[in-house]
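dumping this here before i forget
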Amino acid sequence: MVSHPQISERPLTHRAATASVTSRSTTTRRHRATRSHTGGTSYRPQNEFPNFAQTGDVEITINADGQERRYMLHRLILVQNSGFFEASTSEDWSKAQARGHTGTANGLGSIGEDEETGREQGRPTFSAAQAQRFTWRYELDRGNKDDEVPMLVQKQTQDTLFGGDSTQPPPVPNKPPAPAHGFLRSMSNFSAMQSASHIAKSNPSHGHDSDIIRDYDNMFRIFYNYSPSLDAVNIAESYIQCKSLLTLADMYDALEVVGPRIDHHLLQFQGRLWKQIAKYPPSYLKLGYLARSKVIFAEALVHVVGQWPTGSNQLRHTVPESVLEVIEDKVDELHERKMKTEARLFKLNLTTARGERVTPSNAYVDWLALSLFRQWLADNTTPSPTPVSKPHESGRTPHAQQPPMNSGTLFRLLGTGGSSYLNRDELKRFVRLRPDEHSREMLKKMEKKMDEIKGMAREIARPLMKSYLELDIGRDGGGLGYLTCTKVDEADFPWD
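structure:
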């Protein structure tokens, strides 16, 4: 309702020029339309993250690193994002207190202006039922032992003699504005919204407590659809921050909300992320599981399966049984594929023009080339036998034999073919073992047959050459000594 100025009926005894003064007064009043009739604007406390003073009903206090962070949040938002708050604010477990905007249910109400005056000043009026609301209070409890994990616990509100909360100052109606009100309020909001990671950097000696402040701040920011404050430059530091935040979200049953944010943040690193996963696959497998990240989990799983049982000690007793079952199933599948491929390679054979298998009697050179290939394959797929020392050689050190080749390196050589193994020099040394049979024509014929054998072996090993990694490893495998042909399907994710 728009109020109109009323003309006073009293005579203006102290004014000489009534018309002109009245005109100036009206003009001045028009430029000061925001001024209240009672002498000042009404006081409205902050109502935005992290302090919803007007609409919030859950007060959370975090004391760490000599600092105190207070949050006034909404139960509705917390319940939607966290199973912990859903259970702790339920009727069975809740310690909510009835509180009001202008007074409490158990104490004396604050003396305010009448309802008509509130309407004139544009302020909303509350009835007794509207003014009363429930609030919950949580504080960070570190426990009695040093090894206990700090946890939010619900506290009972302490009322004063007049029924108000002893921890909150009484409301001040019609508080006059301070100088530069907008500037001070904007600076207050900026201070409240600053990143917890900035606090951690400014207090390096209190790293653990600063991490607690940062993690809680990031979790609440995600609840209100704000971006978490995580390192976007150093991927190693970002991993530590993401892991700590996921651990906290797991405590409060909020992984479904926090996980996608972590996934989105880490995937921004792209190539650096794939290289980091290749260095520490078990660590990123656990992080991918907590974050419910299909891309990170699948990338790490391919590395873990290829290296198994390396890394098994880091995963056992640290991941759920469902994750170990997926790993073991994939390891068995990969082992079965390798055994079948090796069997086909050993059964590889050459035939004569008549369709007969080569033998020393019908194709001696072809048979020599095939025998050399099989010997090379056996030497690189089976461990060398332990040499037996003779009695008179007991004091001598046995000759160290070359260990078998890694399965990944072996099958990549077979899949590459050409001069990557059993090249011309090796064939020449082999042929010279029989000087009476050594000739240039025999060497050329043996090279031709060996290329034919390598071509057939390359087709057999081709399925194991495929890589399901996001990391580009090239044809030579990028230095990885294991296979990366494990395919991760939708049914393999243990959280679906």
